[in-house]
Design brief:
Elements: E1 8-13, H1 21-27, H2 33-37, H3 39-50, E2 58-60, E3 72-73, E4 76-77, H4 79-96, E5 100-105, H5 112-122, E6 127-131, H6 151-155, H7 161-166, E7 176-179, H8 186-195, E8 198-200, H9 210-219, E9 223-229, H10 251-264, E10 266-273, H11 278-289
Parallel strand pairs: 1-2, 1-5, 5-10, 6-7, 6-9, 7-8, 9-10
Antiparallel strand pairs: 3-4
Length: about 290
């Protein structure tokens, strides 16, 4: 791997340990626990196959596929392996030092390393749009132990000290806007209010992008990083997220919003996360049972 800085990097990070298997199995009753467990890993790899061909260099974050290292520690499911994978992603970014990072995951915590890298690189000149049905502001000690729901809190420097210390920079809450918000645990929503992070529902941007663009101008930032959890999208149009909730963005609305944002600021970071391909998981299991070897 070259240590020379590159202008752009596509980061393939098919991390799956951020969501406890019991939660996945509850939300995906059609799947066995074994099938559900590595669903985000398959989802991340499929995103790389489906994404447009590009000359942008690709870096693969090593992801442990062992199903044994998932014990809850310090209030975080699979804490040790998640910390190891976060550090591996940070090492790649430190070595490559890209000015622009496009991340394909995996659970929502795959945005932590690239967004922290960009926050360090642009030192205050970075706004973050977090497109998600949930605020991702859970912390260890809350009832839910899934690290994917702690992603934004960790980026803000709130949560497990070993994770937050590993990051080269933290986000300023004033530079973050939640868009697509329509659910969330009580503690996480209270933390959003405490931190003063703004939030918009899909209905707030259904007809035009003015509220997002006004907020973006108010930050003074010339650059923006966008996190897209697929649960921000209307589930009847795209049913490949962990949580299928109605009331999300229509695909045409999402495309319009992202186009408007890219005209108002330079997009230096983009993550697509929480791709859980239900049909393909079942198909993979079927193919594994057929006499194809």
């Amino acid at each position: 791997m070259s240590s020379r800085p590159s202008s752009s990097l596509r980061l393939l990070f098919p991390q799956w340990q951020g969501t406890p298997v019991e939660v996945l199995h509850e939300r995906l009753p059609e799947l066995t626990k074994d099938q559900a467990l590595s669903g985000h890993s398959l989802g991340g790899r499929l995103l790389q196959m489906l994404a447009p061909e590009s000359e942008t260099p690709v870096a693969h974050v090593p992801v442990d596929m062992s199903r044994q290292r998932t014990a809850v520690s310090g209030g975080i499911y699979a804490r040790d392996v998640l910390l190891k994978q976060l550090r591996a992603a940070l090492d790649i970014l430190a070595e490559r030092d890209p000015a622009r990072v496009l991340t394909l995951g995996g659970d929502c915590s795959v945005s932590i390393a690239p967004f922290s890298h960009l926050a360090r690189r642009y030192d205050g000149d970075l706004a973050v749009l977090w497109l998600d049905a949930h605020p991702d502001l859970t912390t260890p000690g809350d009832a839910y132990t899934g690290f994917h729901a702690m992603a934004l809190a960790t980026l803000l420097g709130v949560g497990d000290a070993e994770f937050t210390r590993a990051l080269p920079a933290h986000l300023d809450p004033a530079q973050v806007l939640l868009v697509g918000l329509r659910s969330g645990e009580k503690n996480a929503l209270a933390r959003q209010a405490e931190l003063g992070i703004g939030g918009l529902s899909p209905a707030d941007v259904a007809h035009d992008s003015s509220r997002v663009l006004d907020w973006l101008r108010s930050t003074g930032a010339r650059r923006v990083a966008i996190h897209l959890d697929l649960d921000a999208v209307e589930s009847s149009e795209l049913g490949n997220a962990t949580v299928l909730e109605p009331g999300g963005f229509r695909l045409t609305q999402l495309i319009r919003l992202l186009g408007d944002v890219s005209e108002g600021a330079t997009v230096v970071g983009f993550t697509v996360a929480d791709h859980l391909p239900r049909t393909e998981i079942l198909l993979r299991d079927l193919l594994g049972r057929l006499p194809l070897r």
